């Protein structure tokens, strides 16, 4: 029996074995959303082999339960490539999500905006990404399944549903391309100018490896960024993780409204 199935059994023993409809991965400063779920909280440390991560501002637990009438799995935080140099670090959590019955994952993150019309406090639906780091979680995978098509990595139907949900909730949600830098240092002004020229609308240090892994596993994917800062050189603000955590709740309130609206639409 695979490790993901073993962990799914551990989780089901505590949270019940009803299938999970979808999973949501929460980014920096967004962990409070775990408290919105009526269900069972399981610390990552209780799940053998599960990546715990060491980033402050992440709520390191898995919550299984009901939100707006749907059974969901909320990951209170993620592990990042920059913590251990492993782009494949979120493979087990995503495989566990699949073993719990989900066919969809919505990833969220805190990001820096490259557009004046998408300022701090806004949210942005990701339409595509640029893997600027060049790293890939499927390096070393031996099966031909590693050749994952990424043309519609961010599921078009799911994106439309989230846009409709935002409109129903009267929340403005931009759309754009997200560029992944490995981190943990912030980007330089020169890197920001370069990635803008390549077509990016926001930058961050997560999500892209998870999207690749999710598509490898056959999960449908959507992703939303909360804008916590402008890219380096685009404003006078001083970039820091403390600022990220401080500004994330502004966008998180909007993001919660969109997610709740989307889940209600599934009923």
Automatic annotation (TrEMBL):
Instruction: Tell me the CDD domains matching this sequence.
Output: PNP-EcPNPII_like
What enzyme class is recorded for this protein? Answer: transferase
Q: Which family, according to the similarity comment? A: Belongs to the PNP/MTAP phosphorylase family.
One Gene Ontology molecular-function label: purine-nucleoside phosphorylase activity
Species, as recorded: Ketogulonicigenium robustum
**NCBIfam families in alphabetical order:** PNPH-PUNA-XAPA, PRK08202.1, PUNP
Q: Which pathway?
A: Purine metabolism; purine nucleoside salvage
Q: Which UniProt keywords apply?
A: Glycosyltransferase, Transferase
Query: Recorded E.C. number(s)?
Result: 2.4.2.1
**GO BP, one example?**
nucleoside metabolic process
The identity of this protein, by name, is Purine nucleoside phosphorylase
Superkingdom, natural source: Bacteria
* Function noted in UniProt: The purine nucleoside phosphorylases catalyze the phosphorolytic breakdown of the N-glycosidic bond in the beta-(deoxy)ribonucleoside molecules, with the formation of the corresponding free purine bases and pentose-1-phosphate.
Q: Which GO terms describe its cellular component?
A: cytoplasm
């Amino acid at each position: 029996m695979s490790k993901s199935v073993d962990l799914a059994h551990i989780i089901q023993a505590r949270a019940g074995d009803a299938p999970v409809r979808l999973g949501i991965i929460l980014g920096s400063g967004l962990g409070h959303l775990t408290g919105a779920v009526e269900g069972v909280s399981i610390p990552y440390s209780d799940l053998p082999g599960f990546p715990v991560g060491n980033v402050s501002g992440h709520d390191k637990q898995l919550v299984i339960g009901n939100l707006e009438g749907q059974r969901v799995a909320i990951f209170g935080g993620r592990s990042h490539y920059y913590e251990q140099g492993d782009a494949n670090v979120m493979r087990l959590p995503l495989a566990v999500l699949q073993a719990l019955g989900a066919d969809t994952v919505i990833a969220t993150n805190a990001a820096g905006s490259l557009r004046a019309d998408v300022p701090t406090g806004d949210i942005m639906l990701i339409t595509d990404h640029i893997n600027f780091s060049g790293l890939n979680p499927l390096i070393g995978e031996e099966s031909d399944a590693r050749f994952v098509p990424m043309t519609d990595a961010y599921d078009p139907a799911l994106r439309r549903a989230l846009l409709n949900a935002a409109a129903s909730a009267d929340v403005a949600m931009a759309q754009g391309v997200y560029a992944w830098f490995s981190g943990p240092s912030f980007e330089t002004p020169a890197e920001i100018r370069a990635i803008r020229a390549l077509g990016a609308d926001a930058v961050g240090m997560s999500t892209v490896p998870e999207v690749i892994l999710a598509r490898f596993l056959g999960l449908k994917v959507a992703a939303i960024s909360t804008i916590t800062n402008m890219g380096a050189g685009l404003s006078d603000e001083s970039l820091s993780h403390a600022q990220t955590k401080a500004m994330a709740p502004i966008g998180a309130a909007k993001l919660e409204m969109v997610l709740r609206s989307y889940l209600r639409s599934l009923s």
